[in-house]
């Protein structure tokens, strides 16, 4: 049960509930702790946002949190965030121990919130740049990929299985980009079907399908590709790389040349020059000879 303390003053101009939740057994605390798991997020249809930046990013995108739990020190120093909350939502004051129990991080900065997940989407009907990921497992890698994709102007992210893109660690690693980018997580067969629909040569807005592979014969350096054409870039999972079915759908194969001292690059590291090459070509007028 919760223990109600004397109401503390809200941050200037802010809104908060007067009672302090100091017990980990409180029903709200138990419910939010369930969001640590994919099952809990699926059953409640909620995401867990941890930290000031993610809460601010959600509000900037016009998304409305369902719950917001914060410590008293956080509320005192973040009046502007409290004032930006949607009508009808007030911050719930919790002890630092309770906040630590709700959060998945070791040192939460004083606030967590819940949010309805953005609707799944394949993105625009005729996109200019899509990132398709085949089974990326590491949440940190996935979050970094999503953030880089948004910075590079990717218009949709397609995921064949792999890590849950809306789990807390991915949301943190993406710095909120996972809330802003049209995203579809599907089985491999569904994603392959989507590739076929948009890469049909006779179809309107057909994309070139680009597979990323380790340095080998037959794969061009990434800067020789014309990235100004409508493109879907495919990257594979850590270790195994792209599955054979995805490689067979490719119209082009590119690589990021590097020293033979390592067999391959981290998938999130390799994605950065590939995705940002489009920006370079937009400034320079095309690929390098």
Structure overview:
- By secondary structure, this protein is α/β, with parallel strands linked by helices.
- It is built from 11 helices and 12 strands.
- Strands 8-7-6-11-9-12-10 form a 7-stranded parallel beta sheet, sandwiched between helices. A 5-stranded mixed beta sheet has the order 1-4-3-5-2.
- The chain starts with 15 loop residues before the first strand and ends in a 5-residue tail after the last helix.
- The model is unreliable at 1-14 (pLDDT under 50).
Structure summary:
By secondary structure, the chain is an alpha/beta fold. It has eleven helices and twelve strands. The strands form two sheets. The chain has a seven-stranded parallel sheet with strand order 8-7-6-11-9-12-10, with helices on both faces. The chain has a five-stranded mixed sheet with strand order 1-4-3-5-2.
């Amino acid at each position: 049960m919760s223990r109600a303390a004397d109401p503390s003053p809200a941050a200037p101009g802010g809104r908060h509930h007067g009672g302090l939740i100091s017990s980990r057994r409180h029903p709200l605390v138990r419910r939010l702790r369930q969001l640590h798991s994919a099952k809990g997020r699926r059953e409640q249809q909620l995401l867990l946002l941890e930290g000031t930046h993610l809460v601010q990013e959600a509000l900037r995108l016009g998304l409305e949190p369902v719950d917001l739990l914060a410590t008293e020190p956080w509320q005192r120093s973040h009046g502007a965030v409290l004032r930006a909350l949607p009508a009808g939502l007030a911050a719930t004051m919790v002890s630092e121990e309770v906040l630590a129990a709700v959060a998945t991080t070791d040192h939460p900065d004083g606030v967590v919130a819940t949010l309805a997940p953005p609707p799944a989407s394949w993105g625009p009907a005729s996109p200019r740049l899509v990132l398709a990921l085949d089974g990326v497992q590491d949440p940190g890698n996935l979050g970094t990929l999503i953030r880089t994709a948004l910075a590079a102007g990717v218009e949709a992210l397609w995921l064949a299985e792999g890590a849950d893109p809306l789990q807390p660690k991915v949301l943190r690693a993406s710095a909120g980009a996972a809330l802003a980018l049209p995203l579809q997580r599907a089985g491999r067969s569904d994603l392959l079907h989507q590739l076929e629909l948009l890469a049909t040569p006779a179809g309107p807005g057909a994309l070139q399908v680009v597979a990323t592979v380790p340095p080998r014969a037959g794969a061009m350096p990434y800067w020789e590709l014309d990235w100004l054409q409508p493109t879907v870039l495919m990257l594979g999972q850590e270790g195994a790389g792209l599955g054979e079915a995805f490689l067979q759908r490719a119209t082009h194969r590119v690589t990021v040349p590097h020293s033979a001292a390592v067999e391959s690059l981290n998938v999130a590291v390799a994605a950065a020059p590939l995705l940002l090459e489009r920006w370079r070509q937009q400034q320079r007028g095309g690929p390098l000879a």
